[in-house]
TrEMBL record:
One of its GO terms (molecular function) is kinase activity. The keyword Repeat does not apply. The keyword Transferase applies. It comes from Atlantibacter hermannii NBRC 105704. It comes from the Bacteria. Residues 30-322 form the Carbohydrate kinase PfkB domain. InterPro entries: PfkB_dom (IPR011611), Ribokinase-like (IPR029056). This is Putative sugar kinase YihV. Coiled coil: none annotated. GO terms for cellular component: cytosol.
Amino acid sequence: MSERRGVIAAGNMLVDHVHQIVKWPEPGWLTEITRSERSTGGAPLNVLLTLAKMRTGLPLQAVGLIGEDHDGDYVMAMLEQYHVNRQHVQRTSFAPTSMTQVMTDPSGQRTFFHSPGANRLLDLPAFDGLESNMKIFHLGYLLLLDSLDLPDAEYGTRSARLLAQMQQQGYHTSLDLVSRQGDPRYQPLVMPALPWLDYLVINELEAGEFSGHTMRKDDGSPDSEAIGQVARQLLEAGVRQRVVIHCPEGAYGIEPGSPGMWVPSVTLSQEEIVGSVGAGDAFCAGLLYGSHENWTLIDSIKLAHACARASLLCANAIDGAKTLAELTLDIQQSH
C-alpha cells in the first residue's frame, strides 16, 4: 500500500471583505474606509491556499458548503487557481455563501461581523467518499458549524462523530476553534472531540475561554507556564500527537512523553503589521505541513511562526503566503 499523502481541510468556507479603517468609531459616529479588498476566509480555505502557495506539491482537497452566488463563484475560482481539489465543495440554493466584514484599524487589530450562511448547513453526509489516500484531515472552526455542533447520543457531538470516523478511516485528524469571547460552549463542544484528535492547534484566547485560566501576566506578557498547563490538560484529555497553543509572542507545544516547550516568535512592530486576518490559520498550515512531513515539534512550530509572520504583512489571509524555500530562508535569517 502506498504511503498516505496530502491534506484535506474542511468546515467554514467564507469570503472576507476586508476594510482598512482610519480608526474604530464611537457609537453613532462615522469613520472612513481607506481601502477594501476581497479574499477567501475560514480555516479550510486559508490553510489550503497557504499550503498551495508553499509550492511543495502536496495534494490538497477542500470540503465545504457554499451558496449559489457571486461569493461562491469566487471561492470555486480561487480553489481552481491554486489547484486544490474542489470535488467535495457543494453548493446550495438554501443559504448564501458565508461572509465576514473585517474592519482593520491602523494597529492591525481586526473586528469581525460574520454572516454564517451556508456553513450552518454543513453536515455529516458531506464527508462521505473522501480521498482515502490523503494523510491529514483538518476541521475548523468548531463553534461556528451549527449542524456539526449539535449533540450526538454516542459521541457527544456530531463533530466528534465526524473526527472519530475520519480517524478510524486512517486519517491524522486536526482541529481548530473559533475565537469567540464568553461562549459557554467551549468545554461541551471541545471535550468530546479531543480523544479523536491527533493535532490540536489553537490560540491563547481560545485556550483561555476553554480553560477559564488567564493566559497573560499582569504586565501583559504571555504566561508560558499557564499556557503550558492548559496544553498539558488538553493532551491528557485525549489528543494523540501534538497540542500547540500560539499567541503573537510565541507558541507552546507538547507531545506525549515530552515536557513541552515554549518557542518564541520573531515579533513585528505595530508599524510592520498590515492585518492579522488569517494569521492563525497560516500558523496552523505551517504546523500541519511540519507534522505531515514528520518534522520535529520545534521545527514545525518555527515554520508555523514563519507562515504567520508572512501573513501579518498583508491585509488579507492569503496574499502574504510564501513558498517553502522563502519560509526556510526567513527561519534561517531570524535565528
